[in-house]
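Try it yourself: sequence plus nicotinamide-adenine-dinucleotide, in.
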Amino acid sequence: MDLKQKILNKQAKISVIGLGYVGLPLAIALSTSGFKVYGIDTDKNKIKSIVSGKSFIEDVKSEDLFNLISTKNNKKNSFEVSPNYSSIEISDVIIICVPTPLTKNKEPDISYIQNAVHSISEKLKLNTMVILESTTYPGTTEEILLPVLQSSNNRNLKAGKDFYLGYSPERIDPGRINQTIHNTPKVVAGITKECSKLIHTFYETIVDKVVTVSTTKTAEMVKILENTFRSTNVALANEIYLICDKLGINVWEVIDAAKSKPFGFMPFYPGPGIGGHCIPIDPHLLEWKLKTLNYNTRFIGLSSEINESMPQHWIEKTQDFLKLNNKSIKNSKILILGVAYKPDVADTRESPSLCIIEKLITKGAKVDYHDPLVKNITIYNNNMKSISNISLEKNLRTYDCIIITTNHSTYDWNKIQEKTSSIIDTRNALKNN
Ligand SMILES: NC(=O)c1ccc[n+]([C@@H]2O[C@H](COP(=O)([O-])OP(=O)(O)OC[C@H]3O[C@@H](n4cnc5c(N)ncnc54)[C@H](O)[C@@H]3O)[C@@H](O)[C@H]2O)c1
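Structure, out:
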């Protein structure tokens, strides 16, 4: 049976590499739709957790995981996980969802992709399709993956004939419930026409709408455009906030009124800064690529400058607020509400709250934090624990200042405001109060 038939009959065996925010929900979606899925992750703790049916991602219910996962005693035959790459030998489709962070110098660290593709190349069988889903700079699939796969196991393989290669950016938005893998259109591209057709066929089995673009470079650029668009517009919202603050205008009222325009305007909101694994990082992948071509990406530079300045702005606001009560940050007791980078997720990657906490501690404040979803964080290499819900209720009044940095939907703002008015609200969480 050829690969297309295997895909259409759901007999293709799939390996998903990297079982994090992107890979795990994707593996579950594929497995639920009838494919046999093998999950691979080098993090043994994640494998352990999955095997025991415990999800570590808000968007994946432990119950769903438990119902799919095959264990020694429980041969459900739809989802198996392992820290090693043995499933590659029998896989027809391999999807790479590993991290693509930046180095300290804000250059792409593609070592996770390189490690994954080298491990794949050692075991790649003929007629297998490899798809990269990790966000990366334009050119990665062609320049990094293709040469390794072509020469896998010292063979001289041809893409589009001996194996298939493509790119499809992930559009998952953790915490968002109305957009799923199934109803969010998927952009795809293959290295050759045959690869493009096959990757299109594959995603059509689980996604309502598949959009094929002409090259993998184009598909890689689509993802970076989407995230640069967000980063730039959030930066604009942050700057408009700073402007309104100087003019004594309520920025939230301005944005709410502007969004009544039915065309030509889309609301973005200011806040404590930007966080997560995408928006603060992805534009710099493009910035780096363009630097190699002697081009300065001005919007990206300016946006990240504005967004990264926001934590310092809120520190200054805190200073001004405490001054009103003849206090200073030094020795003040400050509570941070919410350390996740956005509401209703447990993800603290690049969270501006962490930066605010670090700055406050450096200035001598006594800082506590509360987050219903994040029990521990690391600040200056030290472990810090969230205060308990009971302590939050009991001790709210004892803080000189409370800074709302994440507007989790489980917070009862009325109750919080009944107990204290020493609040700095970076998210307009108290809009109805
Ligand atoms: N998180 C999001 O909302 C989001 C959305 C769209 C795209 N993306 C992109 O998707 C990619 C993955 O992001 P994520 O948030 O899922 O990351 P993650 O850190 O949550 O998960 C990645 C997983 O890959 C594993 N891993 C690393 N190297 C490996 C290897 N060589 N072999 C097997 N497993 C390996 C890690 O242990 C980790 O569990 C990134 O490129 C990211 O930019 C993320």
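One thing you can check immediately is this: The radius of gyration is 24 Å.
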